[in-house]
Amino acid sequence: MIRFIGTDETLALRSEILREGIPADYCRFEGDDDKYTFHLGYYHQDELICIGSFHKQPKEGYPGEGYQLRGMATRLDYQGMGIGNQLLNFSIVYLRGQKINYIWCNARINALRFYLGLGFEIISDQFEIAGVGPHREMYLKIQ
Ligand SMILES: CC(C)(COP(=O)(O)OP(=O)(O)OC[C@H]1O[C@@H](n2cnc3c(N)ncnc32)[C@H](O)[C@@H]1OP(=O)(O)O)[C@@H](O)C(=O)NCCC(=O)NCCS
User: In a 3-state reduction of DSSP, which class is residue 27?
Assistant: First the structure.
């Protein structure tokens, strides 16, 4: 089941999957608690197994209202089962309802195929995010 969750609920999975176990409190993003930010969580039998955060943040050069997807992660033992795909599809339907035009993200190179499978396109050359690794910017027009 997919639910809207608070920032604090995302921190343990962010730490475990995205930040190699650094303390949860260091896994906060600027804008996490902004008025228009929301976080989604996928629960399986009361356990949180997949998260994604959505910050209202335009991408220069793209028309309309945009959201940046951040902190997308699925617990290791549930990866590759279509759960991340379901969570992102939920966000797309929700954001369409909010009259948002596009979603973009800084995608890790190892997650490119995942985003391409959802219809995202690559919009930048490869670049490095310090301490995390190589990324490409990706963009999905949703209406
Ligand atoms: C990237 C990530 C969030 C994707 O989440 P996920 O829940 O594993 O995603 P899905 O299962 O929906 O899709 C992953 C793969 O499983 C495949 N898949 C989807 N449904 C499937 C199913 N029912 N059975 C088997 N495989 C399936 C998808 O085709 C996809 O393959 P691809 O990557 O080759 O295109 C997750 O792998 C993760 O947390 N990775 C580590 C952290 C990370 O890199 N996060 C992204 C930061 S930008």
Answer: helix
pLDDT at 131 over 90: no
In a domain, 130, yes or no: no
Which residue lies with its CA nearest to atom 33 of ligand 1? 114
Residues 6 or more apart in contact with residue 25 via CB below 8 angstroms: 11
Span 51-62, pLDDT tens digits: 999 999 999 999
Kindly report, residue by residue over 92-109, the tens digit of the pLDDT.
999 999 999 999 999 999
Which residue range forms the structural domain that includes residue 31? 2-100
CA of 142 to the centre of ligand 1 (A): 20
Classify residue 74: in a domain, yes or no: yes
Atom number, ligand 1, closest to the C-alpha of residue 110: 44
CA distances from 103 to 9, 46, 83, 107 (A): 22, 28, 18, 12
Residue 19 lies in a domain: yes
pTM above 0.70, yes or no: yes
Query: Which CATH number goes with the domain that contains 17?
Result: 3.40.630.30
Number of domains in the chain: 1
Q: Is residue 106 part of a domain?
A: no
